[in-house]
Amino acid sequence: MTKLYDLKVVSGIEVRFSWKLAGTIDQVSYQIEVNDAQNNLLWDSGKVISEERHNILAPSFPAEKKLFWNLVVEQRDGSLLTARGPEFFSPISDWQAQWLEPERNRKPLIDKKKAWEVKKFEKDPIERLDAPIYFRKEFELKQLPMEALIYMSARGIYEVWINNHKVSSLFAPGYTSYQKHIDYQVASVANFLNVGKNVIGLVLADGWYTGKIEYIGVGQQYGTENSIISELKLNYSDGSKSSIFTDDSFRWTDQGPQKYADLYVGEYYKQADELQKWLEPGFDDSRWEKPVIKQYGYSELTLQTIPEIIESRTIRPTIIRTPKGELVLDAGEVIVGYTSFNNLLLAKNNIVSLEHSETLDENGNFLQNILGQNKEQKDYYESGQDGAHSWKASLTFHGFRYVKIEGTMDCDPEHYLIHVIATPMKRTGFFRTSDERLNKLQENIIRSQEGNMISIPTDCPQRERTGWTGDMQVYAPTACYEMDVEQFLWHWLEDMKNEQHEDGQIPQVIPCPPSHDYMKPEGEDAVNTAGWSDAAIIVPWRLYEFYGDIKILDDCYDMMSRYMKSVENRLSLLPENYNEMSPEKQAYQKYLWNTDFQFGDWLMPSAGHESANITGNEVATLMVVMSTDLMSKICGVIGKLKEQRYYQELNQNVKDAFVQEYMNTDGTMTSDYQGVYILALATETIPESLKKKSVARLKELIVNNGDRLDTGFLSVPYLLPVLQKLGELELAHRLLFQDKCPSWLYEIKMGATTIWEVWDAYSENGVPKADSMNHFAFGCVGEYLFRTILGIDQRGVGFKNVVIKPDFTSGLRYAEGQFDSIWGPIKVFWEIVADEVTLSVELPPNVSADIFIHDQVFENITHNFNHVSNFQTKELEITYK
């Protein structure tokens, strides 16, 4: 029996349909029909003879429509599978709505550009932050519409309400490169309208637009005031139409219950100022003010193409009484979201505070591990009367595990709830082994990915919440195994194009607010940073590898080629001591990236921030090798053969220059660190004549470090894969199963529930550092778990031709899991009992695999495979728990 599932549509400038199959009967054709809400047929693909089922392009559809699609899949045996896909919306055609802003004097901005100099503000947040704005308008309907769609967006974050019904999503419109791109959202609201009087209410808060953002924590990065726009389109059964849209008939106030709401600082809610019945007709808004109409236009507005942020789950916390007597909630895991309470008995004017942190100190007391300007992560609720109170923050979120509660001694866990938020992306990777520590590691990887993909891929969800490009590029393969991130990252890459400088350079963070320049070293004029800016090439390539759609390469090629030109421009800058060099050395300087600030192999355990100084030039040059190699492959895929040859030649020249400048004749590196060897081996930069010696030195560095890694951000993804490729599996195993710091399993031993920013975020004595406990970057080991331990790999792209080659020698007794590819689920189970290994594989329709068991190869396998064979391996000195 074959299952048709995971029907998906992406609607924007173009519309793409996808679906998957699980079972044993191949697809031979498909047919898609698209209808509007009145069941009028708008498009029929006809019967298409094809096994394709990912990103099927459709023509554009009429604007301002709620659309439905039906799918018929014909199987090889002649049977038909049918399903209805999720509804979607076509874009708005012409906006009539106007941008509304309040006319007010905002509180003076006292944020410091050098945030590290700020110890504590003289003013509390309520004295220096501004209140959200409430807008409302009443309108009358003589008849109910057949269809009602509301289009909405903001510079800031917003809520939209129709007659006491919230119709907007969380933290919309999300974080984008606001100067060029603002998403708008659509909702169907016909069921919330009444004949007679109706009310539309809007709430507008700072969000990422004017709120305190990035590491620096400076507000008003994109403007000094927020604005909002919405348009309600009504279609009636008699064919008539009408619109209710933002204009100067709306009224606004900043005298609502939220005294401030900032994504980083937190939210202050004063119950006594609640606007009772403001969403009902007849509310007296005569003292509210007339908004200012702003002529911002609509060119930046784009229909959102990624899922809207949701509350994904809730957690009932446990209650902790710390040694200091603090009342602390424990979510049991580091998460991203907010806290609510219900039925707390409070006296009038009682203030309850909820402070969020990821850590307790070594004695079990509450500890705020996130430090810096505007990083409070603290919410307040001020009661307006005696009695039972319930409340949930709505315009802020936090990264935390623990919540310190002050202002009440209520320790009933039933009165508190933790709300986890996420950009909902289908989970595609499942992994389990006989070692519970690896299983925990997999859980932590997933949890960090979920928490760091709120609107954009971020480094961490508390201190910075910034789209650091280097973090994303090293983690991209694991992200693709774990979740369906294709459209999410494609959407982010659109903003990378928006942020690209005229000369082709790519910022370190996307989106890139002006405050990011405050972090530049004095005198530094470069924008590009090796390994970070290279995400412009690496991330599109990873998406192509996993999802097989050549369009991502076509879409990003201009950005990629302009970026490479900018890299060549930076290479052409010569070092200060150029004139003192020999002619031979001068000849290859134009192929070394040795004149700009670089992060190098960032955060190597042995060097920390000093990694930038001791590996910067070497790693930067190796990243040029990597990117030129990928560019040659990309050019080959999209048919740019002249450019392919150019990048192949450039790639070899940079390799040769690296060897001449940074390698010794005995195969060692002038920068003698694990990561430099790993990247040089991963990029095949080391000549064959020196490779054996270089590998010997790498092994020596690892063994001398106690079988522990010393790799930083850019090299750690390649550490285990390089060792595997070299045939050094036993050494790879010792690193993977190591539980002394620094290692992945040290974090598990110390009770981590997410991936840490630094390997020693907690000392052996349980003392936490002031670092993030939720960074997905070092979770890049997840790729190795799927590709090598479980054994799911591929030839080519898109997992059409699969390679199943598990590593049976790690000492594990079994491993099982699956990767839900664009074709359907690829499932693997293997088990070793005594001297026999059992391997079971399930493949989706239209997919084949070559399966490797020791020296045996089973070629072109389709559907299901089961095999038992003899197994011999030497005992490894590894202890499993």
From TrEMBL:
GO terms for molecular function: alpha-L-rhamnosidase activity. GO terms for biological process: carbohydrate metabolic process. Residues 321-410 form the Alpha-L-rhamnosidase concanavalin-like domain. It comes from the Bacteria. Coiled coil: none annotated. Residues 146-305 form the Bacterial alpha-L-rhamnosidase N-terminal domain. Residues 426-789 form the Alpha-L-rhamnosidase six-hairpin glycosidase domain. It holds the Pfam family Bac_rhamnosid_N. This is alpha-L-rhamnosidase. It comes from Trichococcus ilyis. It catalyses: Hydrolysis of terminal non-reducing alpha-L-rhamnose residues in alpha-L-rhamnosides. SUPFAM superfamilies: Six-hairpin glycosidases. Gene3D superfamilies: 1.50.10.10, Galactose-binding domain-like (2.60.120.260), Immunoglobulins (2.60.40.10), Maltose phosphorylase, domain 3 (2.60.420.10). It is an enzyme of class 3 (hydrolase). Its EC number is 3.2.1.40. Keywords: Hydrolase. The keyword Hydrolase applies.
